[in-house]
From TrEMBL:
Requisite cofactors: Mg(2+); Mn(2+)
Protein origin, superkingdom: Bacteria
Cofactor note: Magnesium. Can also use manganese.
Protein species of origin: Porphyromonas macacae
The protein's name in its UniProt record: FAD:protein FMN transferase
Length: 345
């Protein structure tokens, strides 16, 4: 089912949802006299910011999108469909879940399994998921890898079949991107032509900003100084037309295990946190869901296989920040199309 069909369903149940909730988490205000509104709030343990041109406050409708999405794909919500699948209490998928999982499998196949939403047991084991193991060693990792692998999942119509009931899915690497897409589609369905939707750094955009220019966003560069702290430098990127942008990186979300910095991106093949040269990956694509999943995949495959992976997806561009041993600590690898969108360094 298309995104527009999903949005129609959301619109139809919008009133019922807000009759039950009785409260909107959104806050809205005029940005300036150019007719743009800003809405912001917190969802899925992260913050969102939405800016769009118009005079109508769509806070309620946007909250409806969040609620419907939450019921489908939020593993922290015990009543969600993904929680039921993970806990073997059901195997039904709705249109949102089918869209996310189908696209994630496309990226899994294209990356040779480097990207895999079934590595939830490994993510949990390393302490980055919704469950935690007390100890992680080679024996534990080997045992968990037995029920990791997207090829062990079968999608049939509206059902998902797992070869092993211990398999669990982690959609965090792609779901926020799709939620941004859904809100973008909701705004389009209300006649909004100019907007930027950002959920936890995953962006869906269209048209121009309040200054009448293409949307501009900053991309953080990691810099490890002598104190070990991380500072940020910015690239300014122009987002023209209609599409999505997403960034994945390990330099902020990490843990110290036995004195070593361990990033949150796990290699499904080895079962261990990735050991590639990529510190962060930013992708621009036709939609934010694809950009979100590909950014994570690039973290795993590394710079040597980046071009090969991205060539399998049309209308995509990328920027990689690579770790080096020189005094700067990093360098960039940029696709030609992405380079044209950078306006400052």
């Amino acid at each position: 089912m298309s995104i527009s069909s999903i949005i129609m369903k959301i619109a139809n149940v919008s009133f019922a949802i807000f009759s039950l909730i009785g409260f909107s988490a959104c806050t809205g205000n005029k940005s300036n006299d150019t007719g743009y509104l800003k809405i912001s709030g917190e969802r899925f343990h992260t913050y969102y910011h939405i800016t769009y041109q118009g005079t109508e406050d769509f806070s309620n409708g946007i909250d409806s999108v969040f609620e419907v999405f939450n019921h489908s794909a939020n593993p922290f919500d015990t009543t969600s469909l993904i929680a039921a699948i993970n806990n073997n209490q059901g195997n039904r998928m709705d249109d949102i879940l089918k869209t996310i999982i189908t696209r994630s499998f496309d990226i899994s196949k294209a990356s040779g399994g480097a990207y895999d939403i079934t590595c939830s047991p490994l993510i949990n084991a390393w302490g980055f998921g919704y469950e935690h193991l007390k100890e992680v060693d080679a024996q534990v990792i080997d045992s968990l890898k037995k029920f990791v692998g997207y090829e062990k999942i079968t999608l049939t119509n509206d059902t998902l079949i797992k070869q092993d009931e211990r398999m669990k899915l982690d959609l965090s690497s792609i779901s926020k991107g799709y939620c941004s897409d859904l809100i973008a589609s909701f705004l389009k369905s209300r006649g909004v032509e100019n907007f930027l939707v950002e959920i936890g750094g995953e962006i869906a955009y269209k048209g121009v900003n309040p200054n009448g220019e293409a949307w501009r966003v900053g991309i953080n560069k990691p810099l490890f100084d002598t104190t070990g702290l991380i500072q940020d430098l910015e690239e300014i990127v122009v987002l023209q037309g209609n599409g999505g942008l997403a960034t994945s990186g390990n330099y902020r979300n990490f843990k110290l295990i036995d004195g070593k910095r361990v990033g949150h991106t796990i290699d499904p093949k080895s079962g261990y946190p990735i050991q590639t040269d990529v510190l962060s990956a930013t992708v621009i694509a036709a939609d934010c869901m694809t950009a979100d999943g590909l950014a994570t995949a690039l973290m795993v495959v590394g710079s040597q296989k980046a071009e090969e992976l991205m060539s399998k997806f049309s209308n995509t561009e990328y920027l990689l920040i690579l770790g080096t041993k020189d005094e700067n600590g990093f360098k960039t690898m940029v696709s030609p199309g992405f380079r044209q969108k950078i306006i400052s360094k």
